[in-house]
Amino acid sequence: MSDYNFAYLDEQTKRMIRRAILKALAIPGYQVPFASREMPMPYGWGTGGVQLTAACLVPDDRLKVIDQGADDTTNAVSIRAFFQRTAGVAVTTATTQATVIQTRHRIPETPLTDGQILIYQVPIPEPLRFLEPRETETRRMHALEEYGLMHVKLYEDIARHGQIATSYAYPVKVEGRYVMDPSPIPKFDNPKLSDNPAIQLFGAGREQRIYALPPWTQVVSLDFDDHPFVASKADHACDLCGARDSYLDEVVTDDVGSRMFVCSDTDHCTTRRDAGHTGRLAEVAA
Amino acid sequence: MTALTGGFADPAIQSAQGFRVLMQAMARPGTIHDLALAVPPAPLGRAAGTVALLLADPTTPLHLAQGHDAIRDWLAFHAGCPLVGPDRAALALGRWDDLLPLDRFAIGLPDYPDRSATLIVALDRLEAQGARLTGPGIRDQVSLSLPDIAPFRANRALFPMGLDFILTCGDRIACLPRSTVVEDA
Q1: Is A142–B24 a contact, with Cβ atoms under 8 angstroms apart?
Q2: CA-CA 20 to 30 A from B81: which of A76, A107, B52, B109?
Q3: Contact status, residue B29 vs residue B165, Cβ threshold 8 Å
Q4: Which residues, if any, are the signal sequence (chain A) (predicted)?
Q5: Across the A/B interface, how many CB contacts are shorter than 8 Å?
Q6: Does domain B11-183 have CATH number 3.40.50.11310?
Q7: Inter-chain CB proximity B179 and A21 less than 8 Å
């Protein structure tokens, strides 16, 4: 352990964040303002998620941090090291072993379980922000359930592209009340938001907002009767583990147009390969 | 027992552990959890005292419906929260009968429904039977002994505004946020 207070933040700050978390859980999908602190990392690197994690951690937690599904990218590695140093908690890359998972823009492929906490890093928490820049107006629109503008945006997608072209940060409606930005997760992950046994917390540090989904909350992706929501992904199998049901990243492998598709969730891919599953390029990669 | 004893021995760790229990309780309305980290003076129960220390500080005006000098002194030393009337309170602490009528407390604003009071209620009985609860955080339904039905139904009708309840009895807590639908068993 270090000379920092447990989990870096001082007690009064954590109490303030904890009160906001309780209000967020009581009003699912509503963005609770909170007095976000400067953290020892830049905005955009997950300061909202880090503050939520700091307020939630207990010493016997096992923390997993992922960035676009990967445990081994810079953002994930540095946040994991930050909490190892300031909270002394155990860390893991296995989704099934983790008690708290901080994530940037993905929901793990492995289904979450009762008792786990999933903490999202959120850049822009307001789903209506690019339709209406004034905070006073978007607050009033949420209060009046005035979400017609969002449907107009989705309709304009259909008018221009023949389908709803929004592929990430796809807006959802929570328990038939608040329209919520699920953070920039691919829309492939949207169905996992609903009826999830884990607690889902969303933190936006720069924008100073916290919102939450309690377990077993109904979350519906916005759509139209004649253009229903489709949780799409690249139409390939993973080239390393052969999975056909996981979200894939496209990787360019040379300068003559070769490419491969790999699972975005590195733990899911590793677990499958360890179990003997192989994909098209598994031998080349090995 | 004085006002100076009975707080958290290890504030950072115990408030983290206590909050995790409280968060699980708020995320899963109606489920009963053990929470007894602080030792407040009688007649305040250990769970109610622990919740007060987890949430109250100099920035949260608290309405003390259970007006005992010993509790006032204990909160002043361990939490430092200003004591105020119900209309200005962010937190309220007391027995159910002393907290009534509930319309004295802030229910939030349409634009800011989070600016509402959280009521820490001391009950004589808290068991998993009685009223039927459904809503976010509840898979099918749960049962919880409630002191009354009508005030909670009226509170749900205000959603997304409304009060949030942390029900305590001795060492145990259960939460009833405004999102929960309450029906007769």
Answers
A1: no
A2: B109
A3: no
A4: none
A5: 117
A6: yes
A7: no
Among the partner residues A15, A32, A215, nearest to B27 by beta-carbon distance = A215
pLDDT in tens, A192-244: 999 999 999 999 999 999 999 999 999 999 999 999 999 999 999 999 999 99
Contact A11 B26 (CB under 8 A): no
Mutation test of the interface with chain B: which of A9, A12, A15, choosing the one with the most B Cβ atoms within 10 A?
A: A15
- By the 8 A CB rule, do B110 and B158 touch? no
Interchain pair B20, A175: CB under 8 A: no
Nearest CA in chain B to A219: B136
Q: Is B159 on the interface with A (CB under 8 A)?
A: yes
Does A215 contact B112 at a Cβ distance shorter than 8 Å?
Answer: no
In this prediction, residue B69 carries a pLDDT of: 82
Question: How far, in whole angstroms, is CA A228 from its chain's centroid?
Answer: 23
Extract the tokens encoding A176: 């038939």
Question: Kind of pairing, strands A178-180 and A199-204?
Answer: unpaired
| Residue A153, C-beta contacts closer than 8 angstroms, at least 6 positions apart | A131, A166
Q: How far apart are CA A54 and CA A13, in angstroms?
A: 10
Beta-sheet pairing, A100-104 with A199-204? unpaired
Superfamily name and number for A11-124+172-221: Bacterial phosphonate metabolism protein PhnH (3.40.50.11310)
Which residues have C-beta within 8 Å of that of residue A3, sequence separation ≥ 6?
Answer: none
- Per-residue model confidence (pLDDT) at position A2: 57
Break chain B into its structural domains and give their ranges.
11-183
CA distance B138 to A164: 32
pLDDT at B90 over 80: yes
* Residue B178 contacts A where some CB pair is shorter than 8 Å: yes
Number of helical H runs and strand E runs in chain B: 5, 9
Query: What pLDDT is attached to residue B2?
Result: 80
Whether the CB-CB separation of A204 and A44 falls below 8 Å is answered with no
Half-sphere exposure of B10 (CA within 13 A, CB side): 9
Reported ipTM: 0.97
> What are the residue ranges spanned by the domains of chain A?
11-124+172-221, 248-285
Interface test with B, best of A25, A61, A62 (most B CBs within 10 A): A25
Contact B114, B87 (CB under 8 A): no
Structure letter (DSSP) for residue B74: H
Looking at the predicted structure, is the pLDDT value of residue B1 above 70? no
Enumerate the residues of chain A whose CB falls inside 8 A of the CB of residue B55.
15, 18-19, 22
How many whole angstroms separate alpha carbon B126 and alpha carbon B144?
Answer: 7
Shortest Cα–Cα distance, A246 to chain B (Å): 26
Q: From CA A270, how far away is CA A108, in angstroms rounded?
A: 13
